[in-house]
Amino acid sequence: MKKEFLVYIGILILAIILYFFVTEPVTFSPTVSLIIIGLIGLALVLIFVRTIMGKLVGRRTVFSFVAISVVVPFFMTVEQPIQTSPEVQSLYQAVLDLKPGSKVLVSFDYDPPSAPELQPMAETFFSLCLERDLRIIIMGLWPQGPQQAEMALQKVMDEPAIASKNYRYGIDYVNLGFQVGNEFVIQRMGDDISSMFQTDYYGTPYDSLPLMRNITNFSNIDFSFNLSAGYPGTVEWVQVAVDRYGVDLGAGNTAVQAPQMYPYLRAGQLKGLLGGLNGAAEFEKAAGRIGKGTKFMVSQSFSHVIVIAFIIIGNAAFFLGERRRKEEVVE
Amino acid sequence: MRREVPLIITAVVGIVFVIQYFIPHYPFNQLNSWFSDWFSIIGACAIWLGALNLIKISADKIYRKRAGWGYAVVIILSFLVITLIGLFEGESFRDFGTKFDWMYRFVYTPLASTMFALLAFFVASASYRAFRARNLEATLLLLAAFFVMIGRVPVGDAIAMKLSIPEVIYPSGVAVWIMNVINAAGQRAILIGIALGIVSTSVRVILGIERSYLGGD
Amino acid sequence: MNNRNGIFIFLVLIVLMGPGGIVQGQVQDVSNDDATVVDSVSAIPPNVTPVMVRNLTVRDNPNDQGGAIRLNWHLSVDDYDGGKVTAYRILRSIGADGEFEEVGDVPAGNDQFTDNNAEDGTDYYYRVAAINSLKQDGQVLWTVASDSDPVGPVSSSAQWFDFQRVNMFIGVIFVCAAILYFIRQAKSGKELFIRKIAGLDSVDEAVGRATEMGKKIFFIPGINDMDNVQTIAGVTILGRVAQLAAEYETWIEVPVCKSLVMITAKEVVKEAYAKAGRPDAFNENQVHYLTDDQFGYAAAIDGMIVREKPATIFYMGAFFAESLIMAETGNASGAIQIAGTAMPSQLPFFVAACDYTLIGEELFAASAYLSREPKLLGSLKGQDVSKGVILVAIIIGVILESFNIFQLSNWFSVIE
Fold this sequence. Notes:
heterotrimer, A: 331 residues, Rossmann fold, B: extended
């Protein structure tokens, strides 16, 4: 245990040093970025050769390369073309089809650990809605959801194009806050939203909010968008809101959860789907906006390539090992 | 009676919950929310049992100086600090700028994000170990993983463009096809099986055939 | 200036200001014969009043708890991109000649609205007004409207059965009937075949390994509460594993994420020890609470695995993103791992990191498989028959849909 505490203290000292001495953002030029990419590629080739020679790579080497592939691209200057997939395009189109003044319900069902993937989706969605004069109603089935919504909304409201429209809280957008109860909340909203949210996030009574005055339940909502990282999330929204109340629903999910949503997308229960950071980047591309999704995709691209490289190296080690075993058996 | 009363309650509540799904008339439309409110109340009361259990075990570990007792000190100190800060800040303890909010944003959030970030390393090591072309099925799995991984990032199409690969078999298109056709079919099959498993288990629990969760037969 | 000139100038001013005052002030009744309402703070251009909606119908909203009336109408002919309609306003009154008040609005392009604030048994009359308005910098400059004729009377009421769910009702009856039928068959002594499930066959081996190595068994029942069926299934399996551990005198530890699960698991493990004939070997601290937080729980489990190096780890229940964190750590520590979950997104991680994985419904079948009780096996058979029926329906449906016959698949969706 003593060794572990010494490691913790060492990391703390390193963090303090970096905090005080690295004051400007560090960016590598395109040339330096290409050199770094080349060096990493060479290192992978070297590992591959060593594997063929029988010197297998350990878990710590894999972890080190993953760490480098995620962290280093933050400082690099690399551009990559992003194509929009059909499920992202259909969500974008669903929002474009809404007329100005349409009411959009956005449910924030995630917490800070999932924010790197879902927050860029939220910001782009808000930006798109506000550009098109849609009315936004925010809620959350996770406790930290409305807080994440506030952060996304604040960021988007500061953009010049949105700020000039002078949107007003309570009239153009509302944050109803968090409500405990998981899928029961969705079910009760299908009958009466005010029974679940007597006040908004700031304590204002439901009936005092002009935007909510004529909204009783889902039949008065034109489109819903759910950002989900687990339970309760998109599955519950589909099972209750879509199947029972006929809500038009789009979803943004973490990359781990997104494959589970494809049956709902194929059945038409979801109007569109954003999957992981890649989905966020594609949505930003469709909306003509450069946000964190696009910027972080470089790291994602790198780490995917590194993992594929190690899968190839692992298979090389496996086949060589099989061949040696067969040779020993023959002998 | 110790076993009969819970079984009767389970049966009655279970059957009522099934019926209320089909009857929109009052009071059936309210039953779901009434019971969920009760569950939330019971869960909120029960959380104290868990917290006290945690403190008891940690204190015991410290007292007997068992292996890893230093971490038990961290548990108790963290528990006390966060509870006392929340109590002293009153009703607005979650507002922006409070000490509780500071601890949430600068202690809890980075810790939770770090644990989630560990997944990146574990996915890499699991992939390195698991994706071996041992047989035909494993090879198909490997190929699907390859196309989905390379197709879900822009660099896949960029490499395909450089190698002059026909656009119809660009990695992104193949990845979309795998997700929409193969993955969707597999997910549907698993979901149908799981749904039927849940129905079967629920029927057994409601009818009292399955009683292990009460504590043995 | 003499009086005659003053009167002349006064009359000229009246003539000039009069029309301007009518346009800029509050004005009633502009264009067509139906009642229209106009609000404006600036000049209203000519020819902006939209044509009213047609064929307004009102009825009690079906299959609901009451208090709702559904309105449908044909869109105004002026409702198109760039047309004169910006929204529709819904107005309601208790009498045909009574005062109409606004109950809601929908953007242009919508041809239906549900009034959810109706009182059951009260007769209402409705009108729909096609609205045209101009907005600038967040302020409405002018609004014109064309009201439809009032339609009614209509009243709302609650229904005793939701006919949109009749297909689900039949499905539930069928599945339950199949399960009960085969439970009865099993009770009558009929032999029921159940296929091998490798993960469950290895439970004995896994517990035995921990006994030989003199190390602990960890049982992790997921991170959901007792209201989740997976947790119930996990706790059921815990009973069987704990009984085996008690017989082999191996320490089994159950760190849990929820307080209610802790209470239930304690009872289950205690009973298991009693059944194995070793009630005094049970220790209260075997089942203990860690934290409700997902990643805090994963961190605690990881720490326990790294420090205590258990020989066997069971993951049985609902898991989310923390599944791979725990399973990979267990794999690195050298433990034999058996997992079971009905979370499709986590199954690949468990398959990659664990020695045996129960996929989806195998988790729910575990209780029947391990106990071999006829009643439990009968329920599995009923479940399988239901799956067979669904499989046949899928095959027939795919064939029919290939020939553009959609009736069968329509029957499986929510009925409108």
